[in-house]
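Hi, here's the filled form for the chain we discussed.

Project: internal
Contact: R.S.
Residues: 260
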Amino acid sequence: MQAARALCLFVFSLTAGIASADLTAGQKAAIGQKIWKNECAGTVDGLTTWNAGEEFPSLGIGHFIWYPAGFNGRFNETWPQFIAYAKGRGVTPPAVATLADCPWNSKAQFQADFRGERLSTLRKWLTGNVPLQTDFIISRSKAALGKILASAPASERARIEANYHKVATTGQGTYALIDYVNFKGEGINTSERYNGRGWGLMQVLGEMRDTGGGAASASEFAAAAKRVLDRRIANSPPARGEVRWKEGWHNRCDTYGRPL
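And the returned structure, exactly as it came back:
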């Protein structure tokens, strides 16, 4: 019991002390637009996507995952979390968005309904609520460090935390931390592993080489993210064909090394 209480206090202190810069409205807007471009090429149609080779659609500027009934995937299902967040902020989503499960059971069904009322209404609502989606993505990032440090081996916690704070000292670094959690998660979910190796924020922070902070740390974060994602591709099941995403993933990581 004492050990469990100590762990809770440890996580709370870390979460309360996250040293990421306060974002201005302009910075939030820039981050939201960058994420929209990263995930959807900045298009309205891209807000409702069903990628080839996947069993679920990806929705919104953050491509939040939504599973059809009966499908239990390895990835964190973020669409229901976003809808709960929206409701908590007093925003009413379209009726289709609040269903317990994704109502389309295949990519073919989804594409057949792409210009139908449900998906058209959903895209219109998402287009009008980009700041809400951005705030949700930022909230996930702010909660990530405490979860990561509670999950990481004790011997690695100090280094991971130090790297996080080094990256968070610039606007571009803060964007990198926010975007990567949305992109590939915290890295603490044991189901999100290939050959026992994860690809989330925890793995990237642990992969980083020593830097002195500032822009250099943001650039090293970008390089470490590419190394981690290359390892994911190498360990992935060949049938998934993940190498086809390598160029796009690298291009996204390159944005972390550029001024916000």
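Let me know if anything looks off before we file it.
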